[in-house]
Design a protein that fits this description.
single chain, mainly beta, SH3 type barrels, 1 helix, 8% helix
């Protein structure tokens, strides 16, 4: 099994992204190919979970589109991921915040982590 992971780590090109976790509000910019054209689309939402490790790691981002919640799973090692920008650091007690799907209105707020700089 370790042989597969070694070969996978050699073949898959990993980009450097900032460290983020569940509860953070992020903006993911990813490339979309439409015929011969290529453009970058932004997807902003709350990270519900990070799962896996290494080349197979993924993260789920949930955003509200109108009145409907939309979730998208992004692989970290995807060549289509352009950048990830952290807008807010959220303070949650769990690594996977699936309970967030059932919350609406003011209950769906996440406390912001305060960053003290000296």
């Amino acid at each position: 099994m370790d042989i597969i992971r070694e070969i996978q780590s050699e073949l898959v090109e990993m980009k450097e992204f900032p460290s983020f976790s569940a509860g953070d509000t992020v903006t993911v910019s990813y490339k979309i190919k439409e015929g011969a054209k290529e453009r970058i689309q932004l997807y902003q939402g709350v990270v519900l979970q990070r799962r896996g490790s290494g080349a197979t790691e993924t993260f789920t981002v949930r955003k509200m589109s109108g009145n409907i919640g939309v979730e998208r799973i992004f692989p970290i090692a995807s060549p289509f991921l352009d950048s990830i920008v952290i807008n807010k650091k959220g303070r949650v007690r769990r690594a996977r915040i699936f309970y967030f799907r059932g919350l609406t209105g003011k209950a769906a707020r996440i406390k912001e982590k305060r960053r003290f700089t000296n």
